[in-house]
Design a protein that fits this description.
11 strands, 127 residues, 3% helix, mainly beta, 7-stranded mixed β-sheet, 1 helix
Length: 127
């Protein structure tokens, strides 16, 4: 049974930073070839934020230059470092993984690519 647990969300002022963590259990973490972060606000579809496969990272244009996705296999954890946060970054953030390797932005940014999801962590950015 694969389990992903996000943490690190909270309330932060605009311009501030947060680091989200997604801890994995139930399967060898290094087997996840593709890992991603998505976010969702009420009434909207889940939106791609960032993805990582191997040593390659991809980002949504809205977060490029501000967010960084990384992974630590020794800790079975994937991170999302979020800097220069904006009010429009407010959302529930989800991590997702799959054991399959994807390269195209079309695949990396699609929620259907991923097999396992965390429960989400709320990020609220205030003015």
């Amino acid at each position: 049974q694969v389990q992903l647990v996000e943490s690190g969300g909270g309330l932060v002022q605009a311009g501030g930073s947060l680091r989200l963590s997604c801890a994995s259990s139930g399967r060898t973490f290094s087997m996840y070839a593709t890992m991603g972060w998505f976010r969702q606000t009420p009434g909207k579809e889940r939106e791609f934020v960032a993805a990582r496969n191997g040593f390659t990272t991809s980002y949504a244009d809205s977060v490029k230059g501000r967010f960084t996705i990384s992974r630590d296999n020794a800790k079975n954890t994937v991170y999302l470092q979020m800097n220069s946060l904006k009010i429009e970054d407010t959302a529930v953030y989800y991590c997702a993984v799959t054991s399959r390797y994807y390269e195209s932005m079309r695949d990396l940014s699609s929620a259907r690519t991923y097999d396992y999801w965390g429960q989400g962590t709320q990020v609220t950015v205030s003015s």
